[in-house]
Amino acid sequence: MKRAERGFDLEGFFFSVSLKKKKIEKSKTKNQPLDPDLLPLRSAFTRVVAPLAAALCLCNADRICLAVAIVPMAAELGWKPATQGEEISVFFFEKVFF
Amino acid sequence: MNEKKSQQQKQKIKQPPLLGLVQSAFLFGYAATQLVGGAAADRFGGRRVLGLGIAFFSLAQLATPALLAAAAAGSSSFPSSSSSSLSAAAVSSRTLAAALLARAAVGLGEGVALPSMSSLVARHVPPSSRATALGASFSGFHCGNLLGLALSPVLLARMGWRGMFAFFGAAGAPLLLFWFSLVPESERVKRERRRNSTSTSSTSTSTPSSCSTSTSSPPPPPPQPPTTPKVTPRALLSSRHTWAIIAANVANHWGYFVYLSWLPSYFHGAVGLDLATSAAASLGPWLLMAVGSSASGALADWLVGVEKWPVRRVRVTLQLVAFLVPAAALVTLALVGGGGGGGVGSVGVGAKAAALTTASSKTPSLHPALAIALVATALGTTSLGQAGFVANMADVAPKAAGSMFGLCNTFGSAAGIAGVVGAGAIVQATGGSFAPLFLLTAGLYCVGAAVFARFASGEAVF
Question: Are B66 and A47 in contact (CB under 8 A)?
């Protein structure tokens, strides 16, 4: 974790356009030399971005599942204003995915 | 079931208020933890704050059925589908309140996610790749929509809604394992904690080498500054560069939540697609957004790194495209209400599916393929904003990216609530017409674009 190596992993990163970036990098971090938190490019993506993407994915899945689940819930629990229109979503997805 | 389905198709379907109510309950919780979550992520590190957030929203998700059961308990037998007891109305209103509470709790947990992302990316990712990193993270975000929409009907069919909540809640456990095994703790945060523990000798909790973060410790809400210069929300708000981002954030979130809650109804009710096609058509734009997020991030970093564009020009250009193209698409949608348009192909799944059902029983007010193409264009280009105003937060406030995101997204979430609720009111007031809503959204995009273009900065201000 305590990685002292600066510089960039050019091979590992598929969007790599990095060669010319170094200069900008230097000029930007001139005031704070050697920020200990900055990771090399590849581990920034494997250790920060990948888990972030997974976490945000679950966030949204947790959120949006209710749009579908609300139909049977409303029917079972007797939430009145629901029953009509929301059936769309369930029928949608039933039909598409089965 | 088939007859029920055809019944449904016959009805003029409009979005009922319930879903809007439940979604805004979520959004209230979501908005509430933006600021706190962002400030906490800046101070304690996104690793611990979002780790806690995942634990919290997963537990809330997991506990939802139990909470509803507890709310229903006492008066009638719960699982019987035909509720025949006397106080059925009372029970249903109690369970509904419990559901709203549970959604708000899930929202509270999820509220810290995006500010933590902003803080983590600003802290750990080299500046020249930050837009790419944000874009990739947002791709995960949009994939969550796809995953949730694809999985939940299957889960509902297999194990009912209780099982579905349990499944999604339980999915938090492996994610947490993954999270804490990978995400690094901030050196700066560690250093500060070390300094604090040496100065106040009595506490003596953290040795520098032990990375064991107890998941149970709550993030203390208002951060007090030990060593790093603290950037308060008030200081952030004093800058017009912040207001530029806020304006873009508000316009973006209004549009996003209007799409999120109204897309299926629009495709079905106004365009006249059948149910299955509407479903496929509403999935398409999310897929496009997932791709667009990553692409726009890489594009922005390429423009800065290789083409040597100034940062401000990159952010403003991308944001202008991200707002003005959807605005044009929405205006077109609003105006071309009348006849069938030309055969627009190549929108992928949606268009293909639409072509199959153009000869449906309903007479469409707009050529379905054209409508799908326009909505997909609108949503897809909106995702360029991730390399515009979102990436601009870390440009302007690199040391307080979490607080900045939390602040701006508090306004954004409020706009999201207004979008969910207001859109329903507008569509109902105009008798099921989506044109006024689209024009209003297009207008907001234009205002957001103008304010951002005028006041955005490419330099670090805080």
Answer: no
Q: Cβ contact (<8 Å) for B11 and A84?
A: yes
Surface of A (26-65) touching B: CB under 8 A: 28-29, 36-39, 41, 44-65
pLDDT digits (tens, 9 = 90+) for B279-336: 677 788 888 999 999 999 999 999 999 999 999 999 999 999 999 999 999 999 888 8
Is the CB of residue A10 less than 8 Å away from at least one CB of chain B?
no
One-letter identity of residue B8: Q
Q: What is the pLDDT of residue B254?
A: 93
Whether the pLDDT of residue B35 is over 60: the answer is yes
Distance from CA of B429 to the nearest CA of A (A): 17
Domain boundaries, chain B: 16-195+234-455
pLDDT at B337: 59
Q: Rounded CA gap, B272 and B434, in Å?
A: 13
Interface contacts A/B by beta carbons within 8 Å: 281
Comparing alpha-carbon positions, the chain B residue that sits nearest to A6 is B126
* Cβ–Cβ gap A92/B275 under 8 Å: yes
Residue B409's nearest CA partner among B9, B8, B17, B27 is B27
Nearest-angstrom CA–CA distance, B414 and B253 = 9
**Where do the domains of chain A lie?**
18-97
| Closest CA–CA distance from residue A9 to any residue of chain B (Å) | 11
What's the predicted TM-score (pTM) here? 0.77
Tokens matching residue B257: 């939540």
Taking only the tens place, the pLDDT of each residue in B102-112 is 999 999 999 99
Residues 6+ apart with CB under 8 A from B270: B365, B366, B432, B433, B434
CA-based nearest residue in chain B for residue A44: B125
Q: Do B179 and A75 touch (CB under 8 A)?
A: no
Q: Is B115 within 8 Å of B405 (Cβ atoms)?
A: yes
Question: Is the minimum CB–CB distance between B150 and chain A shorter than 8 Å?
Answer: yes
Q: How much is the mean pLDDT over chain A?
A: 66
Interface of B with A in 299-328 (CB under 8 A): 301-302, 304-306, 308
CB contact under 8 A, B184 and A48: yes
Please give the average per-residue pLDDT across B261-276, as a whole number: 74
Measure the CA–CA gap between B234 and B400, rounded to whole angstroms: 13
Tokens representing residue B434 in the block: 């989506």
C-beta separation of B305 from B127 below 8 A: no
pLDDT tens track for B413-428: 999 888 877 887 787 7
User: Which one of 3.40.120.10, 1.20.1250.20, 2.60.120.200, 3.10.20.70 gives the CATH number of domain B16-195+234-455?
Assistant: 1.20.1250.20
Q: Where on the phi/psi map is residue B134: left (φ > 0), alpha (ψ -120 to 50), or beta?
A: alpha
Which positions 354-393 of B are in contact with A (Cβ < 8 Å)?
none
